[in-house]
Amino acid sequence: MQSTTAKPVTPALASTIAPTQAMLRNPFIRLDAKDNVVVARLEVPAGTAAAAEGTTTLQKVPAGHKMATRFIAKGEPVLKYATVIGFAAEDVEPGTWMHSHNIAFGDLVKDYRHAQDYVPTDLLPPDQRAQFMGIVRTDGRVATRNYVGVFIVSHSGATVARHIAKHFDAEVLAAYPHVDGVVPYIHEQGSGMEKSGEPMDMLRRTLGGYIRHPNTAGALVIALGEEHNELGAFLAHQRLEPGPRLRTLVIQEVGGTRKAIAAGIALVEAMLPLADTARRRSVSAEHIMVGMQCGGSDGFSGLSANPALGAAMEILIRHGGTAILSETSEIYGVEHTLTARARTPAIGQKLVDRIDWWLDYNKGRDTQINGQVSPGNNAGGLANVLEKSLGGAKKGGNAPLMEVYEYAEPVTQHGLVFMDTPGYDPVSATGQIAGGANLICFTTGRGSCFGSVPAPTIKLASNSPMYARMAGDMDINCGPVIDGEASIAEMGQRIFEQVLRHASGEATKSEALGVGLNEFVPWPLGVAD
């Protein structure tokens, strides 16, 4: 792309974004030769010549927002990454700022091309795969962390669980240096809901997935004694057998809250020596399973952090690992890019079936799948859910789609897979971890303070200014892609290498801050009684 002359940036703006010389020479990013819009690297004043596009800005274009590069007639598709993100709501002149005020959300005709573009991954031989320091469990599964969990079958046990976990502070756990913590998993379900059916199955599947998770070294399961999610029925449903690493406690049977807390502390104390026997050793990266999330997205997320994460996941997949793409309502409009890469037509159809469920469920509701994104996403440059979906799907790179899972189902297929979840980050990540994710990679453009246990969250910033503002929360800066200082491939390699370090035990920013202890949120589908 030819250099573009930009007007001088005002001192106030310069102090906010500290533009690089590359950004000043080339303030717009062209993503595809077929596109009729480009994206501003920084705030571009009105009247700025965009020589490479043969036009001049007619209005100020905020950072992360789009500018029309040619005349777009009313009703004509607006193209980004050569993909439709909406339709011109009016005749648009070259140089016009393009956003939700002049991009209409409309119906798309999609060619799903089930499995027609499937290309198997060229896997590296086992002896050439990257290694990390993991914890190998007796059944061969590999952990990235070593926690003891205090679980409740219903919200009635929340206070008891919190008090038990609170007892095991840093001073107490100093005697168990190989245990990362004792964590309470609190939720608001288990009573006030139907006793059988999909909602209860989903809750039990989520709890069971966390209890069986390789990062869970031991689990205490607490019940009041009369909840809808009855303890015995839950254990039978999930085929869980009490033993040295799985203990149960019924509050009504031991004599109430105070006695239950004391009994629970004793049960956890008995598990800690066994949990502390865990040691790390070198294992293949094929044992890494990453749940991918994005939240607080901006116009740069789909240009830097998401595709860079996609590049990193392609590397991980070549090394035999697994990447879980989710947030079903936020891939709407671009799901055909995934179905075309599906391993089989049946797998592609599974994804379409979940999209259809979401469309039916959200009829007449004020939700993102019906077009409008959150205020933060909109301010960051995303005009509608189609544009957000396009950027979000980039987290999966170009890997083939190997399988589609229901929420919190155990993930057994390696490679890129999809799990049906809402777009709400805590609920979505909870499902991924229940499915077996032992790391979460979370991209953000506006900034997020999300964290998770027992699988830690790695946060990726889409732009350098936000990374600088929130350096205490961000693990990786993908802003150099926007700044013109790194390619997607280079950033993907950096991310992959940092994933290996965090999988080996290096604490993420969220872990260091203690963020994640309150982000266990099973999907509250059907809570109605």
What does this protein look like?
This protein has 529 residues and is an alpha/beta fold. It folds into 3 domains: 11-104, Archaeosine Trna-guanine Transglycosylase, Chain: A, domain 4, CATH 2.30.130.110; 147-277, Rossmann fold; 285-513. Helix content is 31%, strand content 18%. The strands form 6 sheets. Strands 19-20-18-17-21-22-23 form a 7-stranded parallel β-sheet, with helices on both faces. It has a 4-stranded antiparallel β-sheet with strand order 1-2-5-8, with no helix packed on it. Strands 13-12-14-15 form a 4-stranded parallel β-sheet, sandwiched between helices. Helix 15 (464-469) links the parallel strand 22 (457-461) and strand 23 (476-477). Helix 5 (198-212) crosses helix 14 (425-435) and helix 9 crosses helix 17. The longest helix is centred in the middle third of the chain and has 19 residues, at 257-275. The termini are far apart.
How would you state the average pLDDT, rounded? 92
Radius of gyration from the alpha-carbon trace, in angstroms: 24 Å
* Amount of beta strand: 15-25%
Overall 3D geometry?
A: globular
Which segments are poorly predicted (pLDDT under 50) over 5 or more consecutive residues?
Answer: 1-17
Q: Tally the helices.
A: 18
Q: In total, how many domains does the architecture comprise?
A: 3
Protein name: Altronate hydrolase
InterPro entries: GD_AH_C (IPR048332), GD_AH_second (IPR007392), SAF (IPR013974), SAF_UxaA/GarD (IPR044144), UxaA_altronate/galactarate_dh (IPR052172)
GO molecular function: hydrolase activity; lyase activity
Keywords: Hydrolase, Lyase
